[in-house]
Amino acid sequence: MLGSVAGLLAGLLGVGGGLIIVPALALLFQHLGIGADKLMHLALGTSLATIIATSLSSITAHHHHGNIQWPLLRAMTPGLMTGVLCGSWLADQINGDTLRYGFSAFVLIVATQMLFDLQPQATRRLPGNLATGLIGSIIGLVSALVGIGGGTMTTPYLLWNNINIRQAIGTSAACGLPIAIFGSLGYFLAGLDASGLPAGSSGYIYWPAFFGVITTSILFAPLGARLTGILPVKVLKKLFALVLVVVAVRLLLG
After folding, report:
1. In this prediction, what percent of the chain has a pLDDT beyond 70?
2. 177 contacts 80 by C-beta, under 8 angstroms
3. φ and ψ at 198, to 5 degrees?
4. What tens digit of pLDDT does each residue of 140-162 get?
5. With contact defined as beta carbons under 8 Å apart, do 16 and 149 qualify?
6. Is pLDDT larger for residue 24 or for residue 228?
7. Of 77, 83, 166, 231, whose CA is between 20 and 30 Å from 131?
8. Phi and psi dihedrals of 59, rounded to 5?
9. Of 73, 18, 35, 49, which is closest to residue 186 (Cα–Cα)?
10. CA separation for the pair 190, 181 (Å, rounded)
């Protein structure tokens, strides 16, 4: 059920599945009796692993329509890889409550952006490869700490740098793949020596949840995309933003 909802909303509203998957998994893991000290780590690592499958599907579609700037992706990838590996290592050094507060704050920022439709003005051009890689490392670092594919940061950054909306979304979706791959690797390695993890885990990746989510999310994402021409997307996006506010407050309250 979680995968179908995450896939549907991702296709319909263009939001990353991690914003839904992380808090839902945290709630499910709590009911499984997983300790609060490792609960968020397991939710973040598993969320990043699921994004591998969904980003592959998204990349195929965007490449077919010519919406991915591959040279830009190559320039950002070393920074994304470095940032997300550092972020997964850093997350392992942080206690679960701090990760929960950080995720909640990030969700509130995203919800505010969606509620008020805040978009950066295209006021500049892309910097050189070194600066682009540095920006990629920051996006990767934050993505690892909140368990997302980075689209909520990458897309506004590309729009700010005069990339048209379709290519900004397509390139951002492609950036989610290295974030997901190396983020999953980082959480896998970081959790190898962790105690108290449930059976079926490899590091901070819980495989039963991974397969449950991707099985339905990859089916429902295309359906969500088709519904964009039928349903009032702008209204739904604002309603979803309000749901995110509730989720963030719920997490903040424990």
Report:
1. 98
2. no
3. -75, 160
4. 999 999 999 888 899 899 989 99
5. yes
6. 24
7. 166
8. -60, -45
9. 49
10. 14
Alpha-carbon distances, residue 8 vs 41, 138, 190, 210, 236 (angstroms): 25, 28, 31, 17, 12
pLDDT tens digits, residue range 12-25?
776 767 888 999 99
Whether the predicted pLDDT of 99 surpasses 90: yes
Query: Does residue 83 surpass a pLDDT of 70?
Result: yes
Instruction: Identify the three-state secondary structure at position 116.
Output: coil
Q: Which of 58, 60, 87, 82 is nearest to 204 (CA)?
A: 87
Q: Can you tell me the distance from the alpha carbon of 87 to that of 140, in angstroms, rounded to the nearest whole number?
A: 7
The whole-angstrom separation of Cα 106 and Cα 169 is 20
Q: Which domain holds residue 12?
A: 2-252
Number of structural domains in the chain: 1
Helices (H), the chain: 2-13, 18-31, 36-64, 70-93, 96-115, 129-146, 151-160, 165-190, 207-227, 233-252
Tell me how far apart the alpha carbons of residues 137 and 235 are, in angstroms, rounded to a whole number.
Answer: 34
